[in-house]
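Every protein is a chain of amino acids, and every chain bends into a shape of its own. The protein below has been through that process, and both of its lines are reproduced in full.
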Amino acid sequence: MKPPVAVADLEKIDVRVGTIRAVEDIATSNKLVRLRVDFGDHTRTILAGMKGEHDDPREIEGRQALFVVNLEPKAMAGEQSEGMLFDLGYADGITPVLAVPEAVVPDGTRAG
């Protein structure tokens, strides 16, 4: 387990539900794919290291998932990522799966 954090620190993280509208290959990267994610009032491009984790990364198109949306944009493989996919398993060495709401909710719904 990681060390404890103050609730105030946790409240700084903005986690929201978004629908993955498209998964596109980034030819210049061995790991990254480009996700086009709908957050209801806007769409973002979020890069995720999914190559090799799924037989076909496009299988998640149309699915809702959790995303961290208040990270500073980050340049990766010559592109900008405007957030981070929240997935489960990578840190434990198992094939990652999406962190998803138990039922469909409006895109942009906040966690917490």
